[in-house]
Amino acid sequence: MSRNQKAMTRWESVTRWPLTAAALVFLVVYTAQVTLEYTGTARLIASTLIFATWVAFFVDYIVRLSLADPKGEWFRKHLFDLAAVLLPMLRPVRLLSVFVRPQGAKESAGANLRARMLIYGIGAALLLVWIAALSVLEVERYAAGGNIRSFGDAIWWAFCTVTTVGYGDFVPVTLPGRAIAIGLMLGGVVLVGLITATFSSWVIDRVTRGHQEQRAATRADVERLTAELDARLPRPSGNNGLPNVGGQL
């Protein structure tokens, strides 16, 4: 492991919990600011805390990018981290890492992956609905001709939009509100598909469990078993293990 990789590992270990706390602070403060309509000093404090969380995510991204080697490959693999810096509504997704832990050795790698995908899928969907509801309420509450006036209305609209139901009883009328709706619809299609695929994989795994003897052996299975048998069989010594009788003939 190179020096930069070691430094990256140490940095991520040190900042993991502070950044998780920053994501939680952002979620709580932004929720309070929108629903309680802070003014004056309270709004200034809330805005300062939100800005501080942005600085924390920005510094973390810059430090990790500077430690990455090669930087181009790291940049391509961490586009979501950049998006979390640019789009505040993505920062609470960081909270999901707290609930994702490697499972014990009793579970297969596929089961571990499905569990992590399910946690991320459901958690991201709920956070997406919550943040989108707050965002659309903030821009639509006092818009002329708008009808999303309360957080309850915004939550209902967000759930209808993310599931692509679209009753049409609440509709954003501002340009920022419609942009939020587009992002929510796109995110909803992806997340619902992810959850459905993960659940389907889990059902198939449960149905086929206990019927492994009916599964056709692959070429890799045959080669692996052949190698194991070769390793376990005793190796003959000299003329295939037979006494040398050639001189007596």
Automatic annotation (TrEMBL):
Main location: membrane
Pfam short name (any one): Ion_trans_2
InterPro entries to which the protein is assigned, alphabetical: K_chnl_dom (IPR013099), VG_K_chnl (IPR028325), Volt_channel_dom_sf (IPR027359)
Coiled-coil parts of chain: none
A GO cellular component annotation in the UniProt record: voltage-gated potassium channel complex
GO biological process, one term: action potential
Occurrences of domain Potassium channel (ranges): 127-203
One GO MF term attached to the UniProt entry: voltage-gated potassium channel activity
Gene3D superfamilies: 1.10.287.70, 1.20.5.110, Voltage-gated potassium channels. Chain C
Superkingdom of origin organism: Bacteria
Subcellular location: Membrane
Parts of the chain that traverse the membrane: 41-67, 117-139, 151-168, 180-204
Membrane topology: Multi-pass membrane protein
Keywords: Ion channel, Ion transport, Membrane, Transmembrane, Transmembrane helix, Transport
PANTHER family cross-referenced by the UniProt entry: POTASSIUM VOLTAGE-GATED CHANNEL PROTEIN SHAB, VOLTAGE-GATED POTASSIUM CHANNEL
Name of this chain's protein: Voltage-gated potassium channel
Source organism of the structure: Microbacterium halimionae
Lineage: Bacteria, Bacillati, Actinomycetota, Actinomycetes, Micrococcales
